Amino acid sequence: MYAHLKSPRLLALTLACATGCIVGQRGAVEFSAEYPLSEIQALRVALPDTPLSVRGDPLADKLTLNGYWFSVGGTATVAQEHAEVPEFDYDREGGFARLTAVIPIDLRDLIDLEIGEITVPDTLDVELLTGLGNVEVTHITGNVSVDVDAGHIEIDGGDEGVAARARIGNIAIRSPGVMDAVSGEGSIVLVQSGVGGNSVYADAGQGDVRIELTSDANLNLDLHATGDIRVQTSTVSTVSYGSFRREVGNGSVDVHVTAAGNITVVLVDP
Amino acid sequence: MFGRSCLTLALVITPATAVGAPSQPASLVEQPQQSSGTLELYGGREGGALQVRGAGTTAGVDLDPGQTVRMQLPPGSYAITGGGAPTSVVVNPGETARYGLPGSPPSPTIPPPSSVEVKQVKKVKKRGPSRRKSGSKWKRVVAPLVSVVLPGGGQMVNGQVGKGFGMFLGAVSLFAGSSALQNAADPLEGARPGQLSDSFRSELLANAGYGVLTGGLHLLYAGQILDAYRVAAGIEKIKPRKRHRVAVEMNRMASVGYRVGDPAADFYADWNVSLMLQVFKRLSVGVGDISFKSGSFNRLTFQAGPRVHYRVFDRNRLWIGLGAGVILQGSVADAQPEALAIDAPPPGREAAFAAIPYGQADFRYFVLDRWSLNIIPRVSAPFGTRFFRGDAAVPKHAATFELGTGVAVYF
Fold it and tell me: How near does any CA of chain B get to the CA of A270, in Å?
């Protein structure tokens, strides 16, 4: 039918013009920045849609980041002008600091941020907020909190505790601390590291949950699933369906899981 | 022979009564009123069609050879045409005037007809011949309402089962297709690092397909509701209201194009209302593109703007027009970010303004006298950022070709 069209691009253009089309150009500006973190114990990074990769560095004493501002404009000149407008806002109050972006109202939907990497001291408590973007956190020994609308979350560290929320996206956490993960649409994998003994909470609105424990002492298992429930530890072993409750020892270590899918809890070597 | 006889009366001000010969059944004969007179028409050797005009009455009579038809008419002078040269006849109260086609015996020896059949008597409006069959009143209400709820249902109520089923299937297919295209997008596209510009072409195609399908669905949905009413009301001939005062248009202007980040292409839609006044023959001015929109950061956008429109073509049910105007768009949104300090003032609101001049053509196909389905190609280039629904925005100086679909009603 479209044999007379010389290329798929022409086909795309023809179809686009059948419903309208917009002509414009793209622009980009590379950036890098540093912000002091002396006397700062907790850092919040709240940015527009962007993937985030945060790495803890034992030798770092400041926040460093790099990346690109992308933009669109009616002409190449306008697009480049747009890309040069946004800037970061670094604010601090006591031991708390916040990094965010300032974009004028008329450019908010015309600007896209893409962070390359953020480096912070590894002992810092870190809170990450964005809309659309995968988040990866490594080598942070402080507390880690991540909240995204859509994106996969991977956290390795967070010895003082990890909390992760994703409206859409999978969550994978490996931590010796308390883990709390909620995914509206995605699977959750929580892996204890170290000696274990910390509580684990997971809620998967639409997906499976797998939990790997390094200790099964004093467990308080409270599991609810629409699919299978499989528990395989040295003290508890079951295959069930719907819900399962079991307390081991004094029950001081909570393993509370809700999943619209399957739940698997296993014991692994530390 | 007499079965083909046909009498049509067009009553403008004063009703006239057509009667058969005195020898006919009483139901076809009325006693002359004292204030009216009688006009007797004779078909002669070959019969023929006559037009009788005068005293606020217009009547068309088809006479068979040898047939006689009597009409009760208000007194006055009547012009009779169709039997050769126009003839003037005076009808006096209580008297009978006669007119005969060639071959008629001299008056008053016109033989009374043995039989006259009045097959059809219709009342029509002044503007012309009958355009409407009798339609049941309940169907005029029920059929379009059913079509609102169930596409094609109104046609089924009207007894057009096949047509209604076809419209239902068409609407379902368009809806399913557009839904599939809308949901085909990966919600996590753009979450990964890197600009995946290689997906632009496929995203553009998907959005273009979505625009075509939803535009077709809009026209089909509106059209089948109006068609249900048209059939229920028995309207056979559509005569667009050229002399309307006000036109209210409800349109969706749509386009596809690039966007920042991933996905690299987006669908831009702008639902709006326009009010146009016809100030001179074919020329209209008014306010177009009236709409509210919302977006991220509690953004609220209001738009409207002046438009001039001229109808360059109007033949039968199709109108073609040209228009030009400016969309004036104002937006407010939360300023960002809020300062951390306890005593810091709140950030307040931030405002933006854009002007979008445009030129457009419009193709209007009338499905009722006062209702048309519209297709509107438009070219524009914004001064300032133009906001659409959600997070869609077109940057300044971006040449934009939109295709609008919608309906208009004329008063």
Answer: 31
pLDDT in tens, B160-184: 999 999 999 999 999 999 999 888 8
Q: Residue A77: how many CB atoms within 10 A of its CB?
A: 12
pLDDT of residue A269: 82
Please give the structure tokens belonging to residue B31: 């006693």
Instruction: Please indicate whether, in this complex, the C-beta atoms of B297 and A18 are within 8 angstroms of each other.
Output: no
Q: Which two tokens stand for residue B54?
A: 């005068």
Q: Hey, of B182, B188, B253, B331, which one would you mutate to test binding to chain A, going by the most A CBs within 10 A of its CB?
A: B188
**B193–A89 CB contact, under 8 Å:** no
* Higher pLDDT pick, B28 / B39: B39
CB B301 within 8 A of CB B292: yes
> Is B296 in the A-facing interface, judged by CB distances under 8 Å?
yes
Helix axes B200-232, B137-149, angle to 10 degrees: 160
- Hey, how many other C-beta atoms are within 10 angstroms of the C-beta on A184? 17
CB contact under 8 A, A22 and B331: no
Q: How far is B203 from chain A (nearest CA, A)?
A: 10
Chain B contacts in chain A segment 208-267 (CB below 8 A): none
Please give the C-alpha separations between residue A64 and each of A47, A53, A193, A263, in angstroms, as whole numbers: 15, 12, 28, 39
Buried b (16+ CB within 10 A) or exposed e, B287-306: ebbbbebebebebebebbbe
Partner A contacted by B263 (CB < 8 A): no
In this structure, the dihedral spanned by the alpha carbons of residues A63, A40, A183 and A233, taken in order and rounded to 10 degrees, is 110
Q: Cα–Cα distance between A63 and A35 in angstroms, integer?
A: 5
Q: Is the CB of B208 less than 8 angstroms away from the CB of A12?
A: yes
pLDDT band at B77 (very low <50, low <70, confident <90, very high): confident
| Distance (Å, whole) CA A161 – CA A13 | 52
C-beta atoms of A72 and B400 within 8 A: no
Q: Give Cβ neighbours of residue B361 (< 8 Å, ≥ 6 apart).
A: B320, B321, B322, B323, B376, B377, B378
Indicate the residue of B188, B255, B392 with minimum beta-carbon distance to A20: B255
Residue B331 CA to residue B328 CA, distance in Å, equals 10
Pairing of strands B318-334, B299-315: antiparallel
Q: How much is the ipTM here?
A: 0.80
pLDDT over 90 at B152, yes or no: yes
Residue A266: which residues within 8 A CB-CB, separation 6 or more?
A210, A211, A212, A213, A231, A232, A233
DSSP code for A214: S
User: Distances in Å between the alpha carbon of B252 and those of B29, B268, B362?
Assistant: 59, 10, 13
Cross-chain residue pair A100–B336, CB shorter than 8 Å: yes
Contact B195 A114 (CB under 8 A): yes
- In this complex, is the C-beta atom of B392 within 8 Å of any C-beta atom belonging to chain A? yes
**Ranges under pLDDT 50 in chain A:** 1-5
Contacts of A108 in chain B (CB under 8 A): 296-297, 299, 333
- Say which residues have a Cβ less than 8 Å from residue B330's Cβ, sequence separation at least 6: B301, B302, B303, B351, B352, B353
Distance, CA of A25 to CA of A80 (rounded, Å): 9
pLDDT of residue B289: 96
